[in-house]
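Full entry
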Amino acid sequence: MNEQNSVQSTSPTVLFVSGREPDYVRNSIALRSLSARYGIVDLTSSQAHYPSRLASVSLKTLQALLWRRPRYDVAFAGFLGQPLAPLLRSLQRRPVVLDAFLSVYDTLAFDRQVVSPVSPGGRAAFLLDWLACRFSTIITVDTAAQARYFSVMFGVPLAKTRVVYLGADLDVFRPVSLAGSPDSPFVVFYHGSYLPLHGVHVILGAAKQLEAQPGLRFVLVGRGQTYARVRQLAAELRLSNVQFVDWIPYGELPAAIARASVCLGGHFGVTGKARRTIAGKTFQYLAMGRPTIVADAVANRELFTPDEHVVVCPPGDPSALAAAILRLRDDPDLRASVAAQGRSLIAERFSADRLADDWSVPVAAALSTDRR
């Protein structure tokens, strides 16, 4: 059990658990932001696989709450903490904040389509989300569109939700100047885990349409669920302007982004989740001052104004994506403008102090709600 005493002992204390490891981006930002305002009792695990992490965190939680009984005021179930929220609420009657960064049911049944919605696995995933929401005092989500989804799908009152946008670590992702020659290629950059909502097949379709454009090259970094299908599609299309790169270390990612002429934030897939969420990579690209193309989706429009902070195109449309890429390539003033204004928005809206304030809101709401 790791107790952080970075704030005054008179401040409320947050007991933090999660299903993902503490250095996963959503948990990392939440932990750092909460630590700036509250004391933290950290019961997370960094084990490699979800079942072993969940078992480790559950055991730590049982040991802590039944025997050690640390002082805390609010329990916080971080990303993928749905199985932990009922446990926390059942063991001690303290307020619980659940970070519903994703719906397990929606992810498994509709986005990744690994179970049928009406199968035992699909029904179990639905029940897991529903129970976690019922046992939580306050639920955090990453967009207002996601809050509406939880309200409609699981009956969560909107008053019980708080929107906390992801943002980016501005100490890691900041503008980097790299000198380039006039004949340097125009690099279109994507990185990610090839999830269906990313719509990497749409990127390949755009690449095929732009294959004859001299000096234009796509760099796709990462691996994941659809990677094999994407590589097969690239072979079938006989693409000559796409470079596939395996995962690169997190610390080297900013340099790779800095070499990009245009970045693809997405999500370019057409699933419901793609429309309701903002890609984490979008925040990182904008934080580094890179001109970025995103899907024209309801979640992206919550924060970003087209042609001011980003350039948009309809999801699922390779031709529209290709046109957006050419538009940025052929208009250096637009590239410079959206890069500067996108960077300015992220720097102002997602500074460390602003993020600490954002994450304090659900904790304060949980404390207030529980005292009524």
Notes: The radius of gyration is 21 Å.
